Each structure stands twice: as structure tokens, then as C-alpha cells.
Amino acid sequence: MLRTIAHRGPDGDGIHVSGQVGLGHCRLAIIDPQTGQQPLSNEDDTIWITFNGEIYNYQHLRADLIARGHRFKTRSDTEVIIHLYEERGVGCLEKLRGMFAFALWDSPRKLLLLARDRVGIKPLYYTVNHGSLLFASEIKALLADPTVRAEIAPEMIDRFLTFYYMPGEDTLFRNVRKLLPGYYLQARTGSITVQKYWDLDFSPRNVSFRQASTELTGLFEESVKLHMISDVPIGFLLSGGVDSSAVLGYAAPKSEPSMSSYTLGFSAPGVADERPYASLVARRNGTAHHDLTISAKDFQSFLPRYVWHMEEPVCEPPGIALFFVTRMARTFVKVLLSGEGGDEAFAGYQNYRSLLWLERLKSLLGPFTPLARTGLTALNYLLRSNRVARIAPLVDIPFDFYYYSRTSNPFSFFNSHHNALYLEAFRGWADKRKSVEILQNYFEHAGSYHTLDKMLYVDTKTWLPDDLLVKADKMTMATSVELRVPLLDHKLLEFAASLPPEFKVRRFTTKYIAKKVLEQRVPQEILNRRKTGFSVPYAAWLRNELREWVYSLLLDATAATAQYFNRRVIEQMFEDDYRSGVHARELFSLAALELWHRVFLKKEYVFEPIAPRASKRSGENVNAGHAYGY
Questions:
Q1: Sorting pLDDT into bands at 50, 70 and 90, what band is 619?
Q2: What total of structural domains would you count in the chain?
Q3: Full domain range(s) for residue 501
Q4: Residues 580-600 as b or e (16 or more Cβ within 10 Å = b)
Q5: Is 609 helix (H, G, I), strand (E, B) or coil?
Q6: Would 429 be classed as within a structural domain?
Q7: Is residue 384 over pLDDT 70?
């Protein structure tokens, strides 16, 4: 199991086995490199932990625990969790400020505790198999147990093609589940319970814009300062956008003169090249800046390994770019800071603004009428948003229905061609109601919130952990780099959730209060430019350099996905895409799904993990049939 995730921690590994319990750890040494080895125990070896992540307030917690009489043998943040658990039990989770996935074995109580951070920055998977509970940071570690079979959950295929990622606790692997963000699992002999310990509350408080701006400035400064704690060099991942520029802007006055920053860009028609903007921010903040670009050949050659590292199918071509830029950064640093999460906290996406205006039009114009369509046409012109044009037919449809796809378009190809896409023999597995059930549940929970807050709540529970953050974790840890995300500090998220919606989206401006606060930290050229994201010209590559390869991948007689999909429909997608480039996202998703089969089920690709160093072992020999593994 450890060999399969050695890329997550090439600095050493350790194993603790006692009776029916086994804990393992691959270490990426960042805080207390000399004495912070894991698994780690308390003073009398009755409580053991294996921990992935960082606790940014560990120094404050440590001082308080020492004052209460606890004795420490390391300077690590890991040991703080153990002693905090001794004080508060499961209540320790409420005190932790950071990103984490950990397993803690309480020997006297015969209790195993698994816990995951509030927003899912760090992953945690588990399976119950032949009387054993196995858990790990990556699914491939579970599959290393010979009793765990890699099998597909066919009912999850439509969920993936509905959202282009896998929201919720289910995975594409049968019987393999995710521990949800903000949840913990307790296991005793014959008993497993899963409970929530944190949620995001969007109940607005009464606060002035000036007061909120002052508080937000302090939270930005505090969070970035805490995320800079490290015993190894730190670099900055720049996207050319507001959020990553803000993180560097707040970090620069507190940093070493030898700071470094990294970006990736492309000089391709129709694709925004972020490198000039990232270079501008780097110059303003005095970092040693590095950039690169990748070719279609680089993109294609990495795709199978991308699927192996991601494990969950996710349509995120920028994830491949993230791997390459992180691999470049690994030459210089072990830790990178990025701006992930700012858009989900403060409403930075254009679809938030577009859908708010649509809701306003619906309330003014009533149900579907020619006047409503005229209003939408005018709105589309004002916002220059093809999203609004695509949702014009939805003016008389409930909000949660047309929001369930991240494209804001339930009439996307996979959804509008649902019956034609699937072969008749497979159609019974493609239950759209089950696919969208997870989002409907979150919408019901957020029923009393403002429209904007509903969107932010749902995205924080689904899109953020199951698309953006899983991509960020898997692609950076693939290169043995830790990615930190200061804008997802839970205190910052709770503050943003408490703000009135008009502080976040005002008229045509998204992320309004954040941009006002950042005026002194982010260049105007960045603040005022249109949001583009971390673009990769994969759509053009799919029509040109990669077209023949992807066509063969999906329509070859040996294609695994031929058992699900109508060949003629896929051929039509290729024809349409070649003419107008409209199906790049769908074709990439199908390619990722096909490669998933070939990597995990057919085992056509074999990737050698980094060979781990000699293990430090304690305890008895493992009995694999009854072990807990990590």
C-alpha cells in the first residue's frame, strides 16, 4: 500500500502494527524534518496517528497543551493532534485550523478515528472488505490489498457525464467511498459510524461594508501568514488572476528575499496566455519567476498517467498543466501557495452573476413569454456571456434544475442526448435522478438561503472538493509537492458566508468586496481584466494534433466503453467537433473514462511508483486479513 503512494512522501516511511491494526505513512518532510516521523504516538504508546496535511495554528495549540501538562517529543504539528485528542476526544477537530486527513488509533478504547478537513483539501478514501476497514489518501493504495478488486460502479458513469466529475461520497470504484469534507468516521469492532462536525452557514449578519472590509483585510493577512509556516522553502503558483496575485501580495512583505513563483501559459489562437500577467505580479513582488509551456505531444503522453494519479474521472485539462508546472517548481521548493477557493468564497465566477440576473428577470417578467426571451437577449448582450444564451430556454424552469450542471446547461450534449448516448442494454444503469440526487439534497439544505448563497453552498460542497481540490492535491502530490490554499481557511470561508450577497456580487461586478480590499495588493491590470482561468488549448488539440489518437481510443473495436455507448453518437460528436469545436469537453471526458478502464480494470498501463526508503517499523507483524492500512 505504501509503495503505491510513495510519490506523496518520498522522504521516508513508517509502519506501526499492533494486533488487528496497522498504520502506515509516506512522509513529505516540511515541518520538523528531523523528528516528525510517522506513525507517531503519545508518551505511553496508547494513541497512534498517521496524518497528511498541515495544522497552521499548531504552535498556539502546542503552547496551550504544554501549559496543561502535556509533554512533547517532537516539534511537529502531527503530535499536537494526538495531545489535543487526549484533551477533547473527537472535539479536537473543532480546534484544528488547516488541511488534513488523518487516522488515529485509540488503543484503550479500541477506537479508530478517521477525519477529513472542512472543505476537502486533502482526500481520504475507505472500503469495508471481508471484515476489514482499509483507508488511504489514494484509491490505488486500497487496490494494493489483494482482497480488494478493482470493479466499476456502473451507475456512477452517468453521474460523471452529468457533472464531468464525481460529486458526493461515491466513486467510480464499486465499494470505495470518500469520507466527505467536514466529516469523521469512528470504527469499533463490528461498528462504523460517519458523522458531520462542520458545515458552512450562510445566515447573513448585520455589518457595514467598511467594517466588513476591515475584517476581511485582517483575515487575508492572518491566513497567508499562517500558511507561510514551514521549515522548507515555499514558492507561489501564479495563474495571472486576482486570487493567486493576492496571496503573493500578502506574502511578499513577510517572505525571504529568495522567493520564487511559477506559471504556465500558451501562445495559441483563442487561448489566453497568462504568462505576461503572472510575470507582472512576480516583478511587482520581487520573486524569481519561472514559466513554461507544454505541447500537444506532452499533453497526450501524460494522459494515461494523469488518469492513474487522479483515480476519479475528472474533466480537468488544466490539471495536466498543473502537473508540469509543479514538476518544474519541485526543482526549487517543496511547498507551493495558490489562490484556489477565492471564487467559491466570494462569488468570482461569471455564472453567479448571470444566473442572478436571470432570476431577477424571471421575477420581473414572470413565466416564459416572448418578453422574457427578449429580456434574456438583452442581458446576454450586456454581459457578453454565452452562458446566458444557452440557458435562455430555461426561463420557466426551477433554479436548482438548470444549475445542476457546472455548465449551467442541462441541455448540454450528454444530458440532451441521454437516451441516444447509452446502449439499450446499459440504459437501466443511467438513472438521471440518481445522478443529480446529491445536488438536489444540498439545494434542499440551502432552501432558505439567498439565490447566490445557494450556488456558493452547493459549489463548496461539490465542485470545490470533488473537482478543483482533488485535481490540485493529486497533481501536486504526484510531483511530491504540497499545495497550500490560504483562501480556503475555514475562518475566511465562514466570514465570506456571513456577508450579504450584495457585498459579493454588485451589479455586473463579481467578487466585489474582495476586489475592493485587494486594490492595494493586486495590480490594477489584474483586478480589472476579464476572468479567464488557467487555460489549456486542449479543444484545438482535439480537433488537430490529438484527433486521430482520441478517435482511435474511443472507437477502436477493443474500446472498453463500447459496452456503454452508441458508436454512432460518438462518431457524430467527432464530426460536429471538427466543424465547430463544440464537444471538446465531452470528448475529453469520454477519453478519460476509457483510459480509466484501461489503467485500472484492463491494466494496459503499468506505472512504477517511487521506491520507498527502508521502513521504520514498530509493533507486531501485520495480519493483512484484519489490518487497517493507510
A1: very low
A2: 3
A3: 200-536
A4: eeebbbbbbbbbbbbbbbbbb
A5: coil
A6: yes
A7: no
